[in-house]
Amino acid sequence: MRRRHEGRVGVNLRFFEVEFESRAVGLPKKNTGHIIKKGFNVKGNQMFKCKTCGVRFPETKGTVFYNRHLKEEQIIIICKLLVEKNGVRAIERITGIHRDTISNVIEDLARHAREVTDLLIKNVGLTRIQMDEMWSFVKKTKEN
Questions:
Q1: What confidence tens digit (pLDDT) does each residue in 5-14 have?
Q2: Are 128 and 121 in contact (CB under 8 A)?
Q3: CB 25 within 8 Å of CB 2
Q4: pLDDT band at 100 (very low <50, low <70, confident <90, very high)
Q5: Which of 48, 63, 78 is the last residue of a domain?
Q6: Whole-prediction pTM value?
Q7: What InterPro entries does the entry give (predicted)?
Q8: Do residues 68 and 106 lie in contact, with contact meaning Cβ atoms separated by under 8 Å?
Q9: Exposed, middle or buried: residue 99 (CB in 10 Å: 0-12, 13-18, 19+)?
Q10: What is the DSSP string of 110-123?
Q11: What is the mean pLDDT of residues 60-81?
Q12: Which of 89, 95, 96, 119 is 20 to 30 A from 102 (CA-CA)?
């Protein structure tokens, strides 16, 4: 009987990475070292394999880039335009990407941002105020 894979690859927006966290049902949470590299997929993304359950998955799984027909550069451009306070229709005009696709990318970005915030609050023990201060510091550091 094959064990069900409950892995997730964390956020990978080139700004920071949350390490692989893979657990098979019935194994202790501290079980590590059972994820190995296993070639590349058609798009050129690194593939990984869980030695416990045998499931293969790409490095983009659990990210905004996973299962998208858009290139990474296009998604990054959407992010940059969104940060510059452009609306969905303005981004559509600039990039030529349909507004529904842009909305889906924005929804995924919001979900990932919530996951990172929850991860930092839960695992690191930061408060919301500390999180805000941390991101302000990151922004100022990036500008300099």
A1: 444 444 443 3
A2: yes
A3: no
A4: very high
A5: 63
A6: 0.61
A7: Transposase_27_IS1
A8: no
A9: middle
A10: HHHHHHHHHHIIII
A11: 87
A12: 119
